[in-house]
TrEMBL record:
Stretches assigned to the Transposase TnpC homeodomain domain: 27-101
Name under which the protein is recorded: Transposase
InterPro entries from the UniProt entry: Transposase_TnpC_homeodom
Species for this entry: Pseudaestuariivita atlantica
Domain of life of the native organism: Bacteria
């Protein structure tokens, strides 16, 4: 609450403060009513239809802000093409000894085909 010594002298500002406090009071009264209903209300397994309504607007605005930040980051980031991968196909280190072994096929086979 506002301290009476620090209240503004302007009537419009005072009315705005009153409206804010009335809105806050209405929200708190609704919250107390829902707590009373949960505590003292009927104990059946019925689900309140209000539980199905989610506050998706807050989630959607948060997602939009994150997407905007990502877009801004992508625009500011320097775009470089990715470096091609260097392949190492069969090249061995130079300090290893190379030995070439040639294996000749057998001249005859078990099926007697030459």
């Amino acid at each position: 609450m506002t301290v009476p010594d620090k209240l503004p002298d302007d009537i419009a500002e005072l009315k705005a403060i009153i409206r804010v406090q009335q809105d806050q009071n209405a929200r708190l009264e609704a919250l107390v009513a829902s707590f009373k209903k949960a505590l003292f209300g009927s104990k059946s397994e019925k689900i309140d239809p209000g539980q199905y309504e989610l506050e998706l607007e807050d989630i959607e605005t948060a997602i939009a802000q994150v997407e905007a930040e990502i877009d801004a980051d992508q625009r500011t980031a320097a775009v470089r093409p990715p470096k091609p991968r260097q392949t190492n196909r069969g090249s061995l280190p130079k300090h290893l000894e190379r030995v070439e072994v040639i294996i000749e096929p057998e001249a005859s086979c078990a099926c007697r085909v030459e």
